[in-house]
Design brief:
about 550 residues, binds heme-as, globular, binds copper (II) ion, Cytochrome C Oxidase, Chain A
């Protein structure tokens, strides 16, 4: 690509679209965080929810706002900016599609939120049967999914435009990564769209009497596991392609980064059964196969760990460090743009180990449905991913709003990350420990608090409440920084850092952009892992299969 065509800034019109997403995301963070505080308080056994508010309602608001709204809106906003920065401004048509997608998602979110607040949709963030919500909740979800397809199409279209203008050239790394994540998202959301439109909505409207619970859970988890990688990959975009620039180094290997993303596309989807290992009605042979595939999807994360260590060490050595760990001293610890995502990376080491425990079929029997799992995803999503997102927003927001990250805000951002680390160590640590003692997840204290075992869990639940309160302070700090960077920080130019490959690195293989090939293998793996078990479930699963047949006739 000629140097003159490489944009150094996000186009101002695309910046507006990106910021619109971030406003929704950070609003969700504030409200969702408040619900989290209420939950840990109730679970400590020392408080009761006021005004007749129901625990499951609060849990649903918390999970939906933080797990679904914050993530999806942040990711779409960040990906829009990343594509505009590296592949050039969107065309007017693509930008319009981006806005249509944004509004569909926002209207859908509002519809779902109203139903949850009216207590018509206390179905938790996984919303699968047999929990049933008001039809408006499902229509809202459908709008969110469709909106994300329209917005995702705009990003893929912008990549297509770049390819047409630069025939035979390797696409910019960040744009390539966004395309992989978007394609994965579209393939994955087909599953959740199917259960919502074909099962849950007709059931909620009263058109069918019953639905096949196992089919709905299976379609959900076909989507639910790639959902967690849809959250993770934007963090990996930052680690692979942005952090090297911030620390004054080079990308360790552009090809390795692309390969790891492609492996996520292939192996993220055919693994949903690892969330259903204890469910009857699925043949153990297929569970085993999907556990094997789950272990395959650990590989690109190990590649990422290797790559990050290599980047840090090479950068340190190029700046004169010696010895095995001398590079640690050369890292820019005073720079929030580095330190905040770095803490996220460090958290991913125990978080990933926990994931491997979950995926190990027999060990899953010990932890499934305990609060250990909640501890797991507060380390993965609520620490690794979210801290990286915070770290991104500290330069992205001022870049988009034409302001500067000041020294004071940089310092506050580092304090914020340490507050988060302390809070999460307490909260997630206590969750893991209580889970091993059998404390249940997703259960109101009023239901289990009086039981004989509960006494054993209470000290851990108090530790969770202490951790959760510290985390809430962390959320207030992020919001202070976000509002400052969006509206009050001094005007100026903040860099959108994009790393470069090592000089002399070979061009990445052209086959990496052969989408027919990758989509073909993705489809083959999905068909292999799901076709026979799904037919088996539909024909033989005992619960609710009548409902499925009723639907078939209808
Ligand atoms: Fe998970 C349940 C398995 C990763 C999120 N997971 C969940 C749920 C969520 C979630 C939300 O197999 C609950 C869903 C529900 O409500 O029921 N998970 C895994 C596995 C991985 C994994 C194998 N999960 C994630 C990520 C998430 C996430 C990422 C969100 C973003 N998970 C499971 C299973 C369950 C599950 C079962 C079901 C449990 C049950 O019974 O219900 C793997 O992807 C993990 C691989 C990661 C690694 C770590 C690599 C380390 C790196 C950092 C390098 C650090 C550096 C810094 C360079 C192998 C890349 C150096 C620093 C120094 C200080 C030295
Ligand atoms: Cu999973």
């Amino acid at each position: 690509m000629q140097a003159s065509t490489i944009p150094t800034k996000v186009d101002p019109r695309d910046a507006k679209l990106s910021m619109a997403h971030l406003y929704v995301a950070f609003t969700a963070l504030g409200l969702g965080g408040l619900m989290g505080l209420l939950q840990v308080m109730v679970r400590s056994g020392k408080f009761q929810l006021p005004f007749g508010i129901d625990y499951y309602q609060v849990l649903t608001v918390h999970g939906v706002l933080l797990g679904l709204v914050l993530t999806t809106f942040f990711i779409m906003g960040f990906q829009t900016a990343a594509v505009s920065r590296t592949a050039g401004a969107m065309s007017n048509g693509a930008r319009l599609a981006g806005w249509i997608g944004f509004w569909l998602m926002t209207i859908g979110t509002a519809m779902a939120a109203v139903m949850i607040l009216l207590k018509e949709a206390s179905v938790l963030f996984t919303f699968y049967a047999p929990l049933k919500a008001h039809p408006v909740f499902y229509i809202g979800l459908t709008l969110v999914i469709v909106g994300s397809w329209v917005a995702g199409g705009a990003l893929i279209g912008t990549y297509g435009k770049w390819r047409r203008q630069n025939p035979g050239k390797t696409s910019p790394l960040l744009t390539f990564m966004v395309v992989v994540n978007t394609v994965m998202w579209i393939v994955a959301t087909l599953g959740v769209a199917a259960t919502v439109l074909l099962q849950l909505l007709p059931w909620s409207l009263g058109l069918v009497e019953r639905v096949d619970v196992l089919v709905s859970r299976t379609l959900f988890w076909y989507f639910g596991h790639p959902l967690v990688y849809f959250w993770l990959l934007p963090a990996y975009m930052c680690w692979y392609a942005i952090v090297p620039k911030i620390i004054g180094g080079k990308i360790f290997s552009d090809s390795l980064a692309r390969l790891s993303f492609l492996l996520f596309l292939l192996f993220s989807i055919p693994v949903g059964f690892h969330h259903q290992l204890v469910e009857p009605g699925i043949d153990p042979a297929w569970k085993f196969l999907q556990v094997v595939l789950t272990f395959m999807v650990i590989i690109p994360s190990l590649m990422t760990a290797f790559s990050m260590f290599a980047t840090f060490e090479k950068t340190g050595r190029s700046q004169g460090s010696t010895g095995l760990f001398g590079w640690v001293k050369k890292l820019p610890w005073g720079d929030a743009r580095f330190t905040v995502p770095f803490i996220g990376m460090a958290a991913f080491i125990p978080a990933g180990a926990g994931g491997i425990i979950n995926a190990s079929h027999q060990l899953n029997q010990v932890v499934h449905n305990t609060i250990w799992v909640t501890g797991h995803f507060h380390l993965t999503l609520a620490t690794t991913v979210v801290l990286t997102f915070f770290g991104i927003s500290y330069w992205l927001v001022p870049h988009l709003t034409g302001r500067k990250l000041t020294k004071a805000m940089n310092k506050l951002a580092i304090i914020q990350a340490w507050v988060w680390t302390v809070g999460m160590t307490f909260m997630s640590g206590a969750m893991h420990a209580a889970g091993l003692l059998g404390a249940p997840r997703r259960s109101a204290f009023s239901e289990y608090g009086g039981s004989a075992q509960a006494a054993e869990w209470i000290p851990y639940q108090i530790a969770q409440a202490i951790g959760g309160s510290i985390l809430f302070i962390g959320i207030i700090l992020v919001l202070v920084i976000f509002i400052n960077l969006a509206f009050f920080a001094p005007k100026g130019e903040e860099e959108f850092p994009v790393g470069e490959a090592e000089a002399g690195e070979e061009k990445s293989p052209a086959v990496f952009e052969n989408w027919k090939l990758w989509l073909g293998i993705t489809a083959a793996l999905i068909l292999f892992a799901y076709t026979i078990p799904l037919i088996d479930i539909i024909q033989n699963a005992p619960i609710g299969s009548k409902g499925w047949q009723t639907w078939g006739k209808w």
